[in-house]
Specification:
The protein has helices at about 5-20, 50-55, 120-135, 170-175, 175-185, 215-235, 280-290, 290-300, 305, 355-370, 390-395, 405-410, 415-420, 425-440, 445-450; strands at about 25-35, 40-45, 55-60, 85-90, 95, 105-110, 140-145, 145-150, 190-195, 205-210, 235-240, 255-260, 265, 315-320, 325-330, 345. It is an alpha+beta fold. The protein folds into two domains: about 5-120, Glutamine synthetase, N-terminal domain (Ubiquitin-like (UB roll)); about 130-450, Creatine Kinase, Chain A, domain 2 (2-Layer Sandwich). Strands 1, 2, 3, 4, 5 and 6 form a six-stranded mixed β-sheet that branches. Strands 7, 12, 13, 14, 15 and 16 form a six-stranded mixed β-sheet that branches. Strand 12 (about 255-260) and strand 13 form a beta hairpin. Helix 8 crosses helix 12, helix 10 (about 355-370) crosses helix 13 and helix 13 crosses helix 14. The longest helix has 21 residues, at about 215-235. The radius of gyration is 21 Å and the shape is globular. The protein starts with a helix and ends with a helix.
Length: about 450
């Protein structure tokens, strides 16, 4: 960031300040998501927004080495007490928070003292991936689904609704609460496509409209924190953990992605299987090939692997399929009235993930497959468990890594992801995941679940 950039940001903040004050804003929260999937924050009073826009807000780089419970590891390139960063709020995404009166929010980019981007800034890596895609002549649209389970107690999970899965009774039980969520998100400019009860105990889901990939990651953070705030205001507690109860289905964080060229969605209108173009197939094949390694960022908690089990609609096998909710990659052709909605849904991910790392990882591996004209294998349009072992072997149907340890090993060997994220960030992710694996090596499913329940 040079002097001209600083001047422009400060002037932009000055223009925004009067409007924010008029709307009752007294504080601005600048957030980033750490490598363990936890949203961290530094905040300033509204009078300091211009200074924050010009010079940033001080923050230690040690947060790169935080585990979900705030334990700091001594990693190979992160975790020490030395150094300082500056958080620069993205004023283009600054949002007045409807669920937190007096507050505004903006995602931040972490910058070093010399003005260069911090090599472990995850949002910047996502922006780089979008740029690489644009250089190749493409854009992408993405959206994150958010599932959460609602408890009436803050320690043990006590379902705050008792109606059946997808049942209208469950909507009635929390009708005012869900209405408040819709009102708040609308006021914050978030376009909600669906909201409904889900399968698990007192579980709900929100699906939002697709947008540019980094914007989608920002929206995921905003939606989750809005839900958390409104829950607490009602004396309720929202868990976004991959597992809320050891014997429950868990919360997913499915990601939808489509690839576009010259304003057209190239996941439809092609001559390939189910209307795929050759480019879209290459993009999807790249993601599929790298999926074991991608799990280390998309399902980065020990609890993730209690959710990622067969026949639970979690996508436990490294396969793709047409509208197959047991495939790790579910291809959706779009509706007859809206074929441009065709997209690829990544079902194996959950909300322990840093969404910016997810964006960077999916786009980098997809672009790698596109550049290499990778081909998708035969689609699997049944539950893979229904195939015999010999049938799975013949069709190349493999289970995804069943543990964080194995996913981390795959990530550590993945050169495409290491290049996309940079050596320092990739190394830190490996160090953090292996520290979590070691800490929970002897833990029971109940202990793993309890430790993760309120962390994300």
């Amino acid at each position: 960031m040079d002097e001209r950039d600083r001047d422009e940001q400060a002037e932009r903040a000055r223009q925004l300040e009067a409007e924010l004050v008029e709307r009752g804003v007294v504080g601005v929260a600048a957030t980033w998501v750490d490598n363990s999937g936890v949203t961290r924050v530094k905040a300033v009073p509204i009078a300091k927004l211009g200074h924050a826009a010009r010079w940033g807000i001080g923050a230690s780089p040690v947060f790169d080495a935080f585990l979900p419970d705030d334990v700091i590891i001594a990693g190979r390139v992160a975790g020490g007490p030395v150094g300082d960063l500056r958080l620069h709020p993205d004023l283009d995404r600054l949002t007045v928070l409807a669920a937190q009166p007096g507050w505004a929010w903006a995602p931040a980019v972490r910058v070093q003292q010399d003005g260069t981007v911090h090599p472990q800034d995850q949002r910047s890596r996502a922006l780089d991936a979008v740029g690489a895609l644009a250089t190749a002549g493409y854009t992408a649209r993405m959206a994150f689904e958010i599932e959460w389970a609602l408890s009436s107690t803050p320690d043990e999970f006590t379902p705050a609704a008792t109606g059946p899965a997808y049942g209208y009774t469950r909507l009635v039980e929390q009708s005012d609460y869900l209405r408040e969520i819709l009102v708040a998100l609308d006021a914050q400019g978030v376009v909600v496509d669906q909201i409904h009860p889900e399968y698990g105990a007192a579980q709900y889901e929100i699906s939002v409209a697709a947008e540019d990939p980094v914007g989608a990651a920002d929206t995921m953070v905003l939606v989750r924190e809005t839900i958390r705030a409104l829950s607490l205001q009602r004396g309720l507690f929202a868990s976004f953990s991959p597992k809320v109860l050891a014997d429950g289905v868990g919360n997913g964080g499915h990601v939808h992605v489509s690839l576009w060229r010259d304003g057209a969605n190239i996941f439809t209108g092609g001559s390939g299987r189910y209307g795929l173009t050759a480019e879209a197939e290459g993009f999807a094949a790249g993601i599929l090939q790298h999926l074991p390694a991608l799990l280390a960022i998309g399902a980065g908690a020990p609890a993730s692997y209690l959710r990622l089990i067969p026949s639970h609609w979690a996508g436990a096998f490294q396969v793709w399929g047409l509208e197959n909710r047991e495939a790790a990659l579910r291809f959706i052709t779009g509706s007859p009235g809206n074929p441009a909605a065709a997209n690829l849904e990544v079902k194996a991910f959950d909300l322990s993930a840093n969404p910016y790392l997810v964006v960077a990882g999916l786009l980098a591996t997809g672009l790698d497959g596109l550049a290499g004209a990778a081909a998708l294998p035969e689609a699997v349009n049944v539950d893979p468990v229904s195939l015999s072992e010999s049938e799975r072997a013949e069709r190349g149907v493999l289970a995804l890594p069943p543990s964080l340890a194995e996913a981390t090993d795959a990530f550590a060997c993945d050169e495409v992801l290491a290049t996309a994220l940079g050596a320092e960030l990739a190394t830190t992710i490996v160090d953090l995941r292996r520290a979590e694996v070691e800490r929970f090596a002897a833990a029971s499913p109940d202990e793993i679940t309890a430790a993760a329940r309120w962390k994300y």
